[in-house]
Specification:
mainly alpha, Glycerol uptake facilitator protein, 8 helices
Length: 230
């Protein structure tokens, strides 16, 4: 497998995260424009593009940077010692920068103000639990599918996030960089900036739980009395 130097890996992470946010925010703005106030249609208008774009971005950039696009995913790989602390910190920085740039790009494409703080409240135990569950499921899916069918990771991630839009009360942000950037958009994808820290805390808790559980669950080894293939 070809190895890419750090600058290329950082550009891939930043660019991928920017395109992801441009999709999330841009599709929310388009849905808001075309759905005529139908909330379900507006949500669907964001679900499909986000899931599809995640698949494309992972297929594009996974061979270069691993295609994390998500500080919670980078944290999981750091805990598994598959990425060093210095590189993880740099990934976090470019992911955040890319997310903010992507949200701003979406605003420019729709002739909206470059920066517009969100006024959409997203808080409370149900929302926090949803973010913990969403991030747990996302990280668990990545780790498990990487173990069994690495070529299918892109599809697993895209499908999980698409499902997460609908089965979680929070619409499955599941990404600290995405969450921060969504505080700077007036689109329906936004979150009140003062509610961002609790979302991030829940996301990191979900990522830690998934990394811990899947580390045990996927550990190779023969259990006493285990029948091969069962």
């Amino acid at each position: 497998m070809q190895s890419f130097n750090l600058p290329r890996r950082l550009v891939a992470e930043g660019l991928g995260t920017a395109l992801l946010l441009a999709t999330v925010v841009g599709s929310a703005l388009m849905g808001q424009k075309l759905a005529g106030g139908n909330a379900a249609l507006e949500l669907f208008a964001t679900t499909l593009p986000t899931g599809a774009m995640l698949i494309v971005l992972i297929l594009m950039f996974a061979p270069i940077s691993g295609a994390h696009f998500n500080p919670a995913v980078t944290l999981a790989f750091l805990l598994r010692r598959e990425i060093g602390a210095r590189i993880a910190l740099l990934y976090w920085l470019v992911q955040l920068a890319g997310a903010l740039a992507g949200a701003a790009l979406a605003h420019l494409m729709f002739a909206a103000p470059l920066i517009a703080f969100s006024s959409i409240p997203r808080t409370g135990p149900a929302q926090w639990l949803s973010e913990g569950v969403a991030t747990f499921g996302l990280v668990a899916a990545i780790l498990a599918v990487m173990r069994w069918r690495p070529a299918a990771v892109a599809y697993a991630v895209g499908l999980f996030i698409a499902a997460g839009y609908w089965f979680t009360a929070s619409t499955s942000f599941a990404n600290p960089a995405v969450t921060i950037a969504r505080g700077f958009t007036s689109s329906l994808a936004g979150i009140l900036p003062s509610h961002v820290p609790a979302f991030i805390a829940a996301q990191l808790a979900g990522a830690l739980a998934a990394a811990s559980l899947m580390g045990w669950l996927l550990r190779p080894g023969k259990e006493s009395g285990q029948v091969p293939g069962t």
